[in-house]
């Protein structure tokens, strides 16, 4: 019993050591503006992953670029997200410093874009734990659990983005239908009032002419 409890605690400890640290945000990029998110890499050789998706606005498109601490552009491209699939970019830092992730909405004249993004860094287990013969099977189990959890989390994020996109489309459609229905009702009421006054004036004219 004690051995089983110890093994379970070791698996949980390794899983916690291998867990990823994620920072997620949602940002609205106004028309004709550029917004940048900065991440400071602590050491050379650090791997971090940047994921983002446009959930609302226009054609669900935006210009995205990555700039390293020396000012060099690592990535610059116009991305479209019609199906809600996230764009994922993994970077290995060449040196410590601030990396800039910029969303450029300068090409849009009227439409704001809502961007959901996340930056993930992975903390590796200590060298002592990874080199221990006793922990190798436990580490493999923890990595398998971590991999499955990441797959489930990614699927959940994708479904949430699709749900939000469809909800926004439905609300936008409802707003348009409501506005057109209101406009149609106003036009019908206006035409009815005009016809009443016109017919009243016509009868009054005939009555006056007859007299």
TrEMBL record:
Location(s) in or outside the cell: Endomembrane system; Membrane
An annotated GO cellular component: endomembrane system
Coiled coil: none
SUPFAM superfamilies found in the cross-reference section: Supernatant protein factor (SPF), C-terminal domain
Superkingdom assignment: Eukaryota
Bilayer topology annotation: Single-pass membrane protein; Single-pass type I membrane protein
TM annotation in the entry: 177-198
One Pfam family this sequence matches: EMP24_GP25L
Similarity comment: family membership: Belongs to the EMP24/GP25L family.
Protein name, as recorded: Coated vesicle membrane protein
Organism: Acanthamoeba castellanii (strain ATCC 30010 / Neff)
């Amino acid at each position: 019993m004690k051995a089983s409890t110890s093994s379970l605690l070791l698996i949980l400890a390794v899983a916690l050591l291998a867990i990823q640290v994620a920072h997620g945000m949602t940002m609205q990029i106004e028309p004709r503006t550029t917004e940048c998110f900065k991440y400071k890499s602590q050491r050379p050789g650090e791997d971090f992953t940047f994921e983002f998706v446009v959930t609302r606005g226009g054609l669900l498109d935006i210009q995205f670029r990555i700039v390293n601490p020396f000012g060099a552009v690592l990535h610059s491209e116009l991305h479209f997200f019609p199906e809600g699939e996230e764009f994922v970019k993994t970077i290995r830092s060449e040196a410590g410093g601030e990396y800039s992730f910029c969303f450029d909405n300068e090409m849009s004249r009227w439409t704001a874009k809502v961007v959901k993004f996340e930056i993930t860094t992975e903390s590796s287990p200590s060298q002592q734990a990874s080199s221990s013969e006793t922990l190798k099977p436990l580490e493999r189990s923890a990595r398998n659990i971590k991999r499955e959890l990441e797959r489930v989390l990614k699927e959940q994020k994708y479904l949430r983005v699709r749900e939000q996109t469809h909800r926004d489309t439905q609300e936008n459609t409802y707003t348009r239908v409501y506005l057109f229905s209101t406009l149609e009702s106003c036009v019908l009421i206006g035409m009815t009032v005009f016809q009443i006054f016109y017919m009243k004036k016509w009868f009054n004219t005939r009555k006056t002419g007859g007299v």
